[in-house]
């Protein structure tokens, strides 16, 4: 069975530009909904890949795994949570060894952290940051 890693940065898209400029907001709920769509998208593959989800300080990953539908084997990656970019880098290093692909929900910074550790594992980047260059604003189901 294939394994897909999922990185959800709960802090992406929450900088000062949200208050002072016209940048759109990507709150916890929006990220959780997008991540749910990614898991649903995985069910279009037969057999459905297992999903390993990065834990985070906002518990988005934990809630996603807890509420995942029965047809998706979603598990939380076993790693400590520091509440910093180290979480993303640690998860990406782990995914390098166990994942066949990784979906990243975050901005340029999150994608930079993943790219630094992921090696040759294919990455699909979904924008939830501000003024992004790398991630694309696509539907989570399409990314899955």
Structural key phrases:
144 residues; 5-stranded parallel β-sheet; 5 strands; Rossmann fold; alpha/beta; globular
Describe this protein's structure.
With 144 residues, this protein is α/β, with parallel strands linked by helices. The protein has one domain (3-143): Rossmann fold. It is 38% helix and 17% strand. It has 6 helices and 5 strands; from the N terminus they run βααβαβαβαβα. It has helices spanning 17-20, 28-42, 60-66, 85-98, 108-117, 140-143; strands spanning 3-8, 50-53, 74-76, 101-106, 123-127. The chain has a 5-stranded parallel sheet with strand order 3-2-1-4-5, with helices on both faces. β2 (50-53), α3 and β3 form a beta-alpha-beta unit. α2 crosses α3 (60-66) and α4 (85-98) packs across α5 (108-117). The relative contact order is 0.24. The mean pLDDT is 86.
Concise structural overview:
The protein is of the alpha/beta class. It has six helices and five strands, in the order βααβαβαβαβα.
Rg: 14 Å
Largest sheet: 5 strands, parallel
**CATH second-level architecture:** 3-Layer(aba) Sandwich
What is the N-to-C order of secondary-structure elements (H for helix, E for strand)? EHHEHEHEHEH
Specify the number of helices.
6
Instruction: Tell me the count of domains.
Output: 1
In round numbers, the mean pLDDT is 86
What is the CATH topology descriptor?
A: Rossmann fold
């Amino acid at each position: 069975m294939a394994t897909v890693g999922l990185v959800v940065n709960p802090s992406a898209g929450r900088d000062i530009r949200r208050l002072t400029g016209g940048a759109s907001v990507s709150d916890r709920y929006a990220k959780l909904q997008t991540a749910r769509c990614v898991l649903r998208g995985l069910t279009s593959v037969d057999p459905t890949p297992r999903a390993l989800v990065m834990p985070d300080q906002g518990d988005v990953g934990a809630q996603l795994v807890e509420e995942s539908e029965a047809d998706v084997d979603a598990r939380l990656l076993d790693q400590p949570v520091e509440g910093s970019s180290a979480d993303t880098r640690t998860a990406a290093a782990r995914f390098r060894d166990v994942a066949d692909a990784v979906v990243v929900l975050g901005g340029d910074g999150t994608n930079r952290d993943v790219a630094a550790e992921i090696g040759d594992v294919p990455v699909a980047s979904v924008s939830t940051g501000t003024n992004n260059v790398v991630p694309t604003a696509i539907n989570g189901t399409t990314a899955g």
